[in-house]
Amino acid sequence: MTTPALLPLSGRRIPTLSPGAASFPHHRATLRLSEKFILLLILSAFITLCFGAFFFLPDNSKHKRFDLGLEDVLIPHIEAPKGAKHPGGQVVIHGQGDHDEHRHSLRDKIRADHERALQEAKEKLRKSRDELRAEIQTEKSKVLEDLKKEGPKPLPPVPMPKVVGVNDGDPGEPDIKEKRDKIREMMKHAWDSYRQYGWGHNELKPLAKKGHSTNIFGNSQMGATIVDALDSLYMMGLHDEFKDGQEWIEQNLDFSVNAEVSVFEVNIRFIGGLLAAYYLSGQEVFKVKAVQLAEKLLPAFNTPTGIPWAMVNLKSGVGRNWGWASAGSSILAEFGTLHMEFVHLTYLTGNPVMHIRKLLAKMDRPNGLYPNYLNPRTGRWGQHHTSVGGLGDSFYEYLLKAWLMSDKTDTEARKTYDDAIEAIERHLIRKSNGGLTFIGEWKNGHLERKMGHLTCFAGGMFALGADGSPDDKAGHYLQLGAEIAHTCHESYDRTVLKLGPEAFKFDSGLEAVAVRQNEKYYILRPEVIETYWYMWRFTHDPKYRQWGWEAAQAIDKYCRVSGGFSGVKDVYSSNPTYDDVQQSFFLAETLKYLYLLFSSDDLMPLESWVFNTEAHPLPVLRRALRPLQSGGH
Ligand code: DMJ
C-alpha cells in the first residue's frame, strides 16, 4: 500500500487491508476484489480530501470584492503605512501607491494562506479523530500556557479615577428593600440558569435549556452574558458569581476567533462590560482584555473616511457593512456609539484611537437632523431617515455622556447634543390627540407617528441633559423627560401583560398601541425602566418606583421560566408564546436599572459615574486626572 496517508479515512475497517493481507496466496478473485476496494478507497479518499480542503480554505468572499474596485476600503488595517497616520489617531486613509502595495501584499498573503490551509488540510486528513482531538487539546493548552508566560502587555501607569459608591445602596425603607431583594433574586435566577445551561455561550435559550448565539457575535462562543452581567453582579453583592465569571474570562476569553462580529455590540457589551468590571473591582485582567479586544476592532476603522464598518472579522480584520443598510452605509447609532469606551481606552493606554465627530461636524444636515445612514467610502448620507430609536438612538446619548464623562470639558460634544436635540424637538416630537408626547421618525420629509421601545430611553436622556442645557431650559427638559416616561408607561399599561410592545403608534385614533403583529413582542428590553430610574434620581417622584415595580412583577410573571427568563411574542395576548432567548442585556441593563431604582442614590452616584448605552458605568474622568489633555477629546 502506498497510501498510508489515507488510512484513517476508511476508519476501523483498514487493518484487514494491510500489505500482508493483500499478498495472501489464496483466492485471486478475492485479491482482485480487495484491489478494487483499495482503488475505490483511494478514489473516495481523494475526493473527500478535495472536498475537505475546500472547507479549510480561508473565507475569501470578501477579498473577491477587490475585483469590484473597492480595494481601498477592504485592506485590513494591520499596519499603518509609513507617514499615513491620521492626524487624529490610528485611522488611516491610504494614497494610491499605498493601495497598490497593500493590494499586492494582501494578494500574496491570501495565496500563501490558501496554500498553507491546503497543506494543513492534507495533514489533518491523515490523522484519526482521536489524534486530532488530542492535538487540538495540546494546542489549546499551549496557547493558554504562552499567554500565561507572556503575561499581560504592560500598560502605562495612570491614576485610577476616584471610584465611589459601588457597594451597598441600602434604601432604608423595608418595603423598598424587599423589592430590591426580589430583583436580586431575579438576577440570581437568570445567572444561575445561564451558568447551568449556557455557560460560555453568548446567551441562553431558557426553554430549550442550552446556549444561544446571534449573528451580532458571529459564530463565536465569547460568553457575552458573562461579560455583560459582571458589573450588575458586583453592584448586587453577588461576589461568588462575579468571581466565577472572572475566572471564566481569565481562562477562556480569547478574541482571536474567526468570527464576524458587530463592532457596535462588541464595543458596548464587551469593552464597556470589561471596563466597568475593571473600575468596580480593580482587577487588571479586565483592563487587559478590554485593550486586547479594542485592538481587534481597530481594523474596522480602515475606511477612506475613518467611519468604521458595522462588522469586522476578529481574526482576519476584514470589515463590511450590513447587507440591509441603505446604499452600503454604516449606521449612525453604531459608529456614533464608540466614543465613551474609546475615550477610556485612550486614558488607560495613552494611544489616541478615533475621530468620528469631526467628520460629522463638517457635513450638511437636512433640517439640522442626522440621517441614520452614512456611507463610509464616500462620506455621504444614505437614505434620509432620522430616528431617536433604533439606528440613531445612542449617537445622541453618547454626545451628552461624552460631555459628562469629560467632567463637562468636552463642550463640543455638549453643543452638538444641544443642536441635535433642538432639531429633534422641532421636527420629531409631537403630542397625540390624547395628549401623549411622542417622538416619531422622520422619513424623507415625512413624520411617521410611531415610537419604538428603544426610543423610550430618551426620557432619561432628556432628564440627564437638563442640567447644563442652553438658555436655562433645564425645567423644560426635565418636563420633556417626564412626558416621555408617561407615554412609555402608557404603552405598557395598555397591554394585557403590562409589558411594552416593540413599537407603538399614534395614528388614526391609536394611542400608544402596537398594530402589526411583528411589533407586539417584548424581548426583555430595558429602555422604559432605564427612563424610570433617571426620572426617579432627578425627581424622587414615587410613581417611578411604582411603575418600575409593575414592570418587574410582569416580567417575573410572564417571562420567567424554570430555565431563566424569556422574551414573549405578543404582549396583547393573555396566553403568549415565548421567543426562547434570555438576552444578555436583561442582566446588564434591565435588572441593573431595576436594582438601582430600589436602591439609595449613593449607589453609583451620577456625579461620579456615566452609564454607557449597555448600562455599564464608567467613571467621570476628572480634569485633574488628565494633566496632558486639553479641553475636549
Ligand atoms: C442594548 O443592547 C443597548 O441598550 C442598545 O443601546 C440598544 N438596545 C439594547 C437593548 O434593548
Automatic annotation (TrEMBL):
Catalytic reaction(s) noted: N(4)-(alpha-D-Man-(1->2)-alpha-D-Man-(1->2)-alpha-D-Man-(1->3)-[alpha-D-Man-(1->3)-[alpha-D-Man-(1->2)-alpha-D-Man-(1->6)]-alpha-D-Man-(1->6)]-beta-D-Man-(1->4)-beta-D-GlcNAc-(1->4)-beta-D-GlcNAc)-L-asparaginyl-[protein] (N-glucan mannose isomer 8A1,2,3B1,3) + 3 H2O = N(4)-(alpha-D-Man-(1->3)-[alpha-D-Man-(1->3)-[alpha-D-Man-(1->6)]-alpha-D-Man-(1->6)]-beta-D-Man-(1->4)-beta-D-GlcNAc-(1->4)-beta-D-GlcNAc)-L-asparaginyl-[protein] (N-glucan mannose isomer 5A1,2) + 3 beta-D-mannose; N(4)-(alpha-D-Man-(1->2)-alpha-D-Man-(1->2)-alpha-D-Man-(1->3)-[alpha-D-Man-(1->2)-alpha-D-Man-(1->3)-[alpha-D-Man-(1->2)-alpha-D-Man-(1->6)]-alpha-D-Man-(1->6)]-beta-D-Man-(1->4)-beta-D-GlcNAc-(1->4)-beta-D-GlcNAc)-L-asparaginyl-[protein] (N-glucan mannose isomer 9A1,2,3B1,2,3) + 4 H2O = N(4)-(alpha-D-Man-(1->3)-[alpha-D-Man-(1->3)-[alpha-D-Man-(1->6)]-alpha-D-Man-(1->6)]-beta-D-Man-(1->4)-beta-D-GlcNAc-(1->4)-beta-D-GlcNAc)-L-asparaginyl-[protein] (N-glucan mannose isomer 5A1,2) + 4 beta-D-mannose
Active site residues according to the UniProt entry: E265 (proton donor), D393, E502 (proton donor), E527
A Pfam family the protein falls into: Glyco_hydro_47
E.C. number(s) listed in UniProt: 3.2.1.-
Region feature Disordered, mapped onto this chain: 148-175
A cellular-component GO term for this protein: Golgi membrane
The protein's name in its UniProt record: alpha-1,2-Mannosidase
Membrane topology classification: Single-pass type II membrane protein
Taxonomic lineage from the root: Eukaryota, Metazoa, Chordata, Craniata, Vertebrata
Domain of life: Eukaryota
Originating organism: Oncorhynchus kisutch
